[in-house]
Design goal:
Number of strands: 11
Largest sheet: 11 strands, antiparallel
Oligomer: single chain
Order of helices and strands: HEHHEEHEEEEEEEEHH
Strand order of the largest sheet: 6-5-4-3-2-1-11-10-9-8-7
Helix content: 10-25%
Length: about 250
């Protein structure tokens, strides 16, 4: 009799716990995006002079809105601490990412070298390795995963399965839950969710990006490589030229 009572008590506890756990299937998530701008710059005379008038960090805020397994991620505002010229802000302000996880399709507008391009393609796969490390972000328990993008650029992410969509900032996605924290060391950039507003009710704003002309990822990458092949060939520091070229390309297609 005692064993039956014990079993029923455990069953009731597990049922209550399951009911108390609320899964989020629509929300607006705010991210603080921080880039160590000076570390992304070269060591030539021009950049060294510019560094004197720039803030160490470029800090901005983006919103990720999602519902019905569709999402849109876009710029919201700058931190007042960020002091950089307008041309270094334009790419952040103009870029937009739309994902339809049900259809496996995405479209994103990226400003590359002053021109807006719209990419329409399938959602790219990221190879992830999930670890046992955990941390709290924006009130959610998150688990760490390590992935690679662009071939050999490591991404360190924290995701929560309490938020059901498999998304994340920019084009980072593919984990069994929502990515609330990301660090990309080779881009000197981190993304951290500051708040999750589950009262979102404006699904009409989540829609593909309209454009007269679109590119798939392969064709646009080929075009940009061809157009910029001579941009990073100056001076004798070949290693720094390669680093600057990689940073430009990785940021263009993140």
């Amino acid at each position: 009799m005692k064993s039956i009572f014990y079993f029923l008590t455990i069953l009731m506890f597990m049922t209550a716990t399951a009911w108390s756990q609320q899964f989020v299937d629509k929300a607006v998530i705010e991210y603080e995006v921080s880039t160590n701008l000076k570390k992304t710059m070269s060591n030539d005379n021009w950049d060294e002079m510019m560094k004197e008038n720039l803030s160490d960090l470029k800090i901005s805020y983006f919103t990720y809105s999602f519902e019905n397994n569709k999402s849109i991620y876009k710029f919201d505002r700058w931190s007042p601490k960020t002091k950089i010229p307008k041309y270094k802000k334009d790419a952040d302000e103009e870029s937009v990412w739309y994902f339809d996880f049900e259809a496996g399709k995405m479209s994103m507008q990226k400003q590359i070298a002053g021109t807006n391009f719209v990419i329409a393609d399938s959602i790219s796969d990221i190879e992830w390795k999930i670890t046992n490390e955990n941390r709290q972000i924006a009130g959610y328990n998150c688990r760490k995963a390590v992935g690679k993008i662009m071939g050999d650029v490591y991404v360190f992410a924290f995701y929560t399965d309490d938020i059901t969509i498999s998304g994340g900032p920019c084009s980072i996605n593919g984990l069994p839950g929502m990515i609330l924290g990301v660090t990309i060391p080779r881009l000197y950039t981190s993304f951290i969710a500051t708040k999750v507003d589950a009262s979102f009710n404006n699904a009409s704003e989540i829609k593909p990006i309209a454009a007269k002309k679109t590119y798939d990822l392969v064709s646009l990458k080929s075009l940009i490589k061809e157009k910029t092949k001579d941009w990073y060939s100056y001076g004798d520091d070949k290693e720094e030229n390669k680093r600057q070229s990689d940073l430009f390309f990785w940021n263009s297609f993140l």
